Amino acid sequence: MQRKVQHLLLKSDHLTGQGRRSKLSLIKGENMKLAMLLPYSNRFSEAVDRVVQLEKAGLDLIYVPEAYAADAVSAMGYLAAKTDTVQIGSGILPIYSRTPTLLAMTAVGMDEISNGRFVLGLGASGPQVIEGFHGIPYKAPLGHTREAIEICRKVWKREEKLTYDGKYYTLPLPEDQGTGLGKPLKIITHPLRPNIPIHIASLGPKNVELTAELAEGWLPTLFMPDKADLAFGDALKIGLSKRSNDLPPLDIVAGGMVAIGDDVKQYLDFGRPNTALYVGGMGARGRNFYNSLVQRYGFEQEALQIQDLYLSGKKKEAEAAVPHELLEGMNLVGPEGYIKEKIAQFAEAGVTYLNIGPIGSPEEQMKIVEKLKEIIS
Fold first, then answer.
1. Which pLDDT band holds residue 29 (cuts at 50, 70, 90)?
2. Cβ neighbour number for residue 162 with a 10 Å cutoff
3. Is the pTM of this model over 0.70?
4. Which one, of 7, 64, 62, 57, lies nearest residue 32 by Cα?
């Protein structure tokens, strides 16, 4: 099993430039790691207690979402004080709702109080949230993402006072756009690490290409490992061909629901509401990234049908229209032997962090994490 988990991830021509080392692989001798989204609970304190226990069970990385709920940074700071070893990632902070320098400052603070355990998870979110909740135009997500990353890394290096001349951000602000009193500054705090890892949530080909070029990690959603090359292979190849040798191999953080047992297949239906929501309702027609992804997997008609039903208010019918093959492909639900095969399949598709949603009570989730840790170790 360990050899399978350490398998080279995609076809070699997608992974390496001429004469260059693989940029997308588990390094020999390393095991796949486990990641999770902050578990849902009625009380935040209960969720934190569960993370503390999951850390003991072997969880490697916990992501804290934000969306349009309570801010993620407050929660991450509290988690940092309550945990010792688990990495803490934002999952994700939208690039539009904070300036790039504030993102950089937040990362410096989180990395300090977590003793070097922070991962800056970024994403463009979508126009419904950015324009509807934040009141900011959803324009040029690729350009904004690239420039935000470049500014963050410039802040963290702290080599000189910060200046930046981009298409979307200019630092200091030009005189004709403000008072003219702005001046270049250097962040006062010395970052614990000058290379805080950045993970990007991306799905569209151009965004995935940008991620493969610039980020330390990639956070895809609705990841179907046996069709990943079909949906993402070309974009990864282009992005990796432009990737700097100064960056480590790209981590891929992907997975799905997990239930282990001989009589658990019915739990796949738990994924229907969420999948229907994303494929059918997360975005207008022609602007739903999740719908486009499922179409690239080969479910063109099914994706359009789910969207038609969902946008017509027929949510239950949309859930029923989600293909069983899609649910089975994205999740890890079945006997232990089957789970081992699925983990190997995720590894072969490039996944270095298995991003899991264990099904069951807090105690059952603990056991799932312990069993998965046993399988991948």
1. low
2. 19
3. yes
4. 7
